[in-house]
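pinned: reference chain
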Amino acid sequence: MKMDKCLLTVVVGVLMLGGCSARVVTVSPGPLIRVEGQPVSIRCEVAEYSGPREQDFEWMMTRKAVATRIKIISTFDAGYSHTSLSKRVASGDISVVRILDNQVELKIAEVKTTDAGFYWCQTPSTDSVISGNYEAQVQLTVIPNTLQVSPLTPPPVLSEGSDLTLSCNVTRTLTHPTYLSVTWSVKRGATSEDILTFGPQGDVVTGAKYARRYADGGIRLVPGKNGVFELVISRVMSTDEGIYECNGTEWTHEDGGNWIKIVESTKEMGTVAVTPTGQSLSVKASSSSSSSSLLLTPGETLTLLCSVAADNLPSVSLEVSWLADGRDLITMERSGVVISNTSSSGGALGNRGEASLERTGGGEYRLGVRGVSGEDGGAYTCRIRAFIEKGGRSSGGGGRWHMAAEKTSSAVTVKVAQIKPSFTVTLEAISNPQMTAEPTELACHVTNITHLPLGGRLGVTWGHTTLPGLVGGPQTSNSIGSLDGYGNLMPGAMYSDRLKSGVMSLTRVQPDTFKLRFLRTQEIDMGQYVCSVSAWSVSSQGDMMTTGEAQSAPLAVRWDTKRPTLNVVGKRLREASVGGATFEMSCAVATENLGEAGYSVLVQSQDSLEGAVRTIMTLSPDNVLQHGGATDPNRRDSLVLTKSGPAEFRFRLAGVQLSDRGFYWCDITAWTKQQPGHTWTRATSGESNKVKVDFQENGPSFSVAIQSDGTNVYPWETAKMECSLSVSGSSPKTRAHTDDLAYEVCWFFTRLRGGQTTNQIASVDRFGVVRKDDRNSSSDISIERTDTHTYLLNIHGTQDSDSGEYHCVATPWYLSASTGSWTQAGELTSSRIFLTVKFAVWESLQLPLLYGVSASIGVGLFSLVFGLVCAHCCCRNTMHTPRSRNKLMDLEMD
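pinned: its structure tokens
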């Protein structure tokens, strides 16, 4: 019982669930309007159904609202069609196409007027419960094809920049609410692209490549009456060539807001070719005469005409330029603005006449140049640049321009006759040098001046050509400098510094006389001189310009060049007869073939005529004094070198010593300058005779000896070496006062016996100042003076590196009895002693031997004790038998 109730509940639930859904059949919204002979498709769809997913459909029709239905086609019954339609179904003219399981489409390939009526779509029931609708209907209206497309043929050839009008007439007979659209397209080769579409609801759609031109106004749509539509393409370009077509389409607007194209027709309008502007553009430049050349006189006005012709001249904008010898003279831009390049304040063409340009008519432009001069002559051409605006005429001038063509006319030759001034130029030498460094003055005279205009001036250019081989180089020509019509000086590159410094000048002393002066003529100035005089006149703009030129005959300037010579005479002014006296000598200079000069002096000496030359002092041409390398820095205050006259020098040596004996002389060099501020140039040099300084000093005689208490020492001991000096034959003053005697002592060390490498290790000067030199040893040294004639060298903590030869060098100083000044005696060198630092073998081995014996004894004692302990503890028998009381037996056993 319970099972029956459950089953009933399930059945009721299924029935209730099935009752919630209702089948819905829908078709394309209608009524449908189609054109006879065009394809028709009607869609049918079923929803909210149960049963299999794939549903079947049946199509029927009635020609009136209430009439017998005629079976058309079925998705599951091949023999479903009515006999009147079976042939069309069999031929495929009528067919049904399944789109989805629940959606199909009825197709009629070419609808006929008899096909008009009501179409029914029915679905057989597959539902468990019948609910909803199982069929739907839509009305189909078939109208005749009355669409007519009639285009006008456009002109086959257009000039670039012209307008192209494409006219197309699209009509139909209005029997039902249908709409029209028209589309223009152009075909180039195999590709076609739409230009513009108008309709079906009055909207405009442009092709992708034509959107910008349509927005700029370059493409305009002009709707007309009675179905006439015109498309105007303004300012066509070469890219607009092609085959133009016109398409007319009839539309219907069905329920649901969809526009349906029911019929269309495309007609070819014709082929359009665009002629480039450059093919028809021509330009001609002409003058008032028919000749290709024009002769003018200065001050006249030049008039030239530029004529422009083109098939599309009204459609282009022109930029007109006049060129003189290929350079822009004046330009009228396409906007009408005139730009001139002949401004007197710095035009590109220099000082030409004032130019003007004006438009005198269609394609006619006139050039005028007032007040022509010689610079206005040349070849004049007219250049035309044609521009076409990419935007339309209605774009307000804001379109985009492109240059379509450029042409230049043939040249018109313009000549300006001039009457050049004439004059004669002569060059003379007012001051001709006879030797180097003398002044030179040349005058350039201008005579017989004719045809020099009012306000004209004269300018001059000086040139110089060197004599061949004069300075060892080839013959060259250089510009010295020039004066222009304003009087401005423009120096040549090689003479710029000399002109700026004032050592040479280039002046105008009178309007017709120019002078060239050299304050100090150099050998490089010899050669031939010319002066070129130019006539300057005022142009129409007020500027100075050259109108004539004449050159003088060359003038030679040269002299016999004699090499300068210099003779120096040395003379003793004060003779040093004893040590400490003052020696003074003079050097007088005598020159030939040498002008103003400066002198440098070297005072030199040598011990003997074969000895080495030493430089004592030098004096430069600028009177800078320097001491030579042979001068003792401590005696520089005793040396004096001065200029005592224009060509005389004096040398003084105070406090002469025995080391000063020898020969003294002057080496003098003469120097010249080409101009102030330049460096000195060597002219010649010479040496004086040698003046001897020789005197005998009866001073003391000295000797030196070296000795040591011991020449063998051990390391870290102190070695002592004594340097002893002795004096004999001294003056009474020296013997009486030991303070009148002093020594400079230096100690030297040689590593190897008889070695050549000697190093100074220490020294003490005559004032007692000790100096130590760096040594390759860790020992220390000291020097002590034990008495007046003895010096002791101590080497503390000697090392093996101190072994070697030692000797001392002493230089005695004594107070001369005759002059009362300190005199240096000759240098003395002692003999050599060899110091040996011994290596103490026994002392060095005592401590290691002590350590070794102590260690051996210790190890032996430790071994003995360790053995006794081991024998007592480890080798004892703990289980032995007690001794017997029988001593004899025990002894025997033992």
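why pinned: The radius of gyration is 67 Å. The helical segments are 2-20, 83-91, 211-216, 277-280, 496-501, 732-736, 841-874, 887-893.
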